[in-house]
Amino acid sequence: MRSAAIFLLFTFAFMLNSFAQEIDTKKLDSFFYALKDQNKSMGSFAVAKNSKIVYETSTGYSALSPDSILASSATQYRIGSISKMFTAVMIFQLIDEGKLSLDTKLSKYFPQMPRAQEISIRNLLSHTSGLMDYVNDVVDKDWITNPHPAAELLDTIAKRKLHFAPGEKQQYSNSGYLLMGYILEKITGKKYSKLLEMRIVKKINLKNTFSSIANNLGKEEAKPYRMIKNWNDIKDIYFPNVIGVGDILSTPADLLVFINALSTGTLISKASYAQMSTFNGRNSFGMGLISVPFYSQVGVGHNGGTYGSYSAVYYFKESGISIASCINGLNYPLNDINIAVLQISNWMPFKTPNFKAMQLTAEELKAYSGVYVNKMLPFKMTIAENNGTLTAQATGQSAFPIEAVSKGVFKFDGAGIVLEFNLEKKEMTLKQGGQKFIFNKQDN
Q1: Could you tell me the end-to-end alpha-carbon distance of the chain, in angstroms, rounded to an integer?
Q2: Any idea of the CA torsion for 417, 338, 207, 125, to the nearest 10 degrees?
Q3: 113: burial class by Cβ within 10 Å (0-12, 13-18, 19+)?
Q4: pTM of the model
Q5: Distance (Å, rounded) from C-alpha 301 to C-alpha 278?
Q6: How far is CA 239 from the centre of its chain?
Q7: Can you give the C-alpha Rg of the chain in angstroms?
Q8: 100 within 8 A of 88, measured Cβ to Cβ
Q9: DSSP string spanning 114-156?
Q10: Which of 6, 27, 173, 415 has the most CB atoms around it within 10 Å of its CB?
Q11: Reduced 3-state DSSP string for 302-361
Q12: Structural contact between residues 241 and 233, judged by C-beta atoms closer than 8 angstroms
């Protein structure tokens, strides 16, 4: 009996230890400490295993002025296009209730839209409507940072021709989700913010998720920053312009509760969830969800980006792992952060990157300075030394700092850019997103 008791005690202790080690929290801590130490990100992050949150952390500050406020699990972030998941869920709730269908035409609610009699709710959900994108298609990119009444936003969409016939192609469009946000209000007679509260927030007990709050009016809202030698303020999108599209405030913990509730049938029917998470061929967009490949696993979720915030929430059924990232200061690719978290959470081999830049003198940096051109591209790249820092600037764009990682190789993690210089050939190779372009240095 005593031997059996010892064996049982050992087994029980092993089970407890295994449960505690569902993910490698020490390795996650090491990774996020490195990000914080080298000013690579400011934000909050969380991981769940089988719907239970097993890890949370924050780096940097939610605000730097007038007072410095450290980011925490209570900090609320603009989640950008993850808001579309919430809008899609409420649309499917109305479908489950028989108040709407995937085949309902846009002309029932907005007949002034181009070819509205041919565009269905299905098209709006799956980005196959062909409608212009009222956020990204405008020439003046600052347009969306200033207030516009709903009538003006609708008029902007209505006056532009379709990019293609409804259903012919799939092209991301913010306009479809703006219209669905307004359709929700028309059908229910309630504001989007109230619908979000009633249909999702209270239903699954979210603590820090809100809509329809203007910029920086939320008590815990993180302010957006961009790294240019130091963290600098950014003028972000004016969020009442993008209600239902990209305005929601939330936290990583709330996002994990949301995506796990969605995947387990708490918010919509199994049939509706199957529609949301169906992806055709190579298309990564379903109806409010995107597919997320990770080695042998395929997850679902969404990412989001405003002019100053970045976010992602993904759920992987095979491993039971779900992750969420909310960032208000990004100086390292969000995709790389998410991959690192997934690798660590799945007990895959991972080594924390060395983020420290190679130190070069001002004279060494000046050797790379100059104007570089590629005849096939409509811009020039100006490389300049400024107080011991090397910067790169494309024509018409803001300058950004580049860090030396080895001889002749520099990077800008914020946009995933690598610049490789060959001083003898007077060449610079720009690498980004799997593509590369060779620039030649202009003679003085």
Answers
A1: 89
A2: 80
A3: buried
A4: 0.84
A5: 12
A6: 16
A7: 24
A8: no
A9: TTTTT-BHHHHHTT-S----TTTSSS-TTGGGS---HHHHHHH
A10: 173
A11: EEEECCCCEEEEEEECCCCEEEEEEEEEECCCHHHHHHHHHHHHCCCCCCCCCCCCCCCC
A12: no
CB atoms within 10 A of CB 185: 19
- CA-angle at 311, arms to 395 and 315, nearest 5°: 135
Contacts with 31 (C-beta within 8 Å, 6 or more apart), sequence order: 340, 341, 344, 350, 352
Q: Could you tell me where the beta strands, DSSP code E, fall in 200-320? A: 225-228, 230-233, 249-250, 290-294, 297-305, 310-316
Confidence band of 5 (pLDDT split at 50, 70, 90): very low
Contacts of 270 (CB under 8 A, 6+ apart): none
User: Which has the closest alpha carbon to 24: 399, 343, 374, 368?
Assistant: 343
- Report which of 79, 63, 62, 80 is spatially closest to residue 71, judged by C-alpha positions: 62
Concatenating the DSSP letter of every residue in 87-100 gives: HHHHHHHHHHTTS-
Round to whole Å and give the CA distance between 315 and 197: 23
- Among candidates 400, 399, 403, which has minimal Cα distance to 418? 403
Separation between Cα atoms, residue 303 and residue 311, nearest integer Å: 5
**Residue owning tokens 């976010």:** 311
CA angle 223, 224, 230 (to 5 degrees): 110
Work out the mean pLDDT of the chain and round it to a whole number.
91
pLDDT digits 0-9 by tens, 351-370: 998 887 788 888 889 999 99
User: How far apart (Å, rounded) are the C-alpha atoms in residues 335 and 312?
Assistant: 9
Task: Determine the length of the chain.
Answer: 444
User: For residue 162, what is the DSSP state?
Assistant: P
What digits encode the pLDDT tens for the residues 117-151? 999 999 999 999 999 999 999 878 789 999 999 99
Cβ(370)–Cβ(396) below 8 Å: no
Please name which of 184, 177, 187, 167 lies closest in space to residue 120, comparing C-alpha atoms.
Answer: 167
